[in-house]
From TrEMBL:
Entry function: Functions as a ribosomal silencing factor. Interacts with ribosomal protein uL14 (rplN), blocking formation of intersubunit bridge B8. Prevents association of the 30S and 50S ribosomal subunits and the formation of functional ribosomes, thus repressing translation.
Family: Belongs to the Iojap/RsfS family.
Protein name as annotated: Ribosomal silencing factor RsfS
Record bears the keyword Cytoplasm: yes
Tagged with keyword Hydrolase: no
Complex and partners: Interacts with ribosomal protein uL14 (rplN).
GO molecular function, one term: ribosomal large subunit binding
Gene name of this polypeptide: rsfS
Amino acid sequence: MPSAELVKIAVAALEEIKATDITVIDVKEKTSITDFMVIASGSSSRQVKSLVENVVEKVKEQGVRPIGSEGLDSGEWALLDLGDVVVHVMLPTARQFYDLERLWQGAEQSRAQHSAE
């Protein structure tokens, strides 16, 4: 599956469970680890876990098997590795502390539009 399509699925899954401040960063020119990073915030440890679980469910429906995940137990920061796309879901305090957007500064970045449907 093309990585841009995988990003769309991940963002839609995050929006479905009301993630906030969803950011997509194109890192193809910066690293060989992945093509895109999707970063989102959850309002509680429970929501962080639910957000990642929803992304897993939605990508599996499309035949994509996640490579791995980390942090689901703590709920402060969870990472989901989909190969060409890495999804980070964090509590706002963790997101501010790690500031991944600044870390990858210069990579093409876009804010996902939160649809009011």
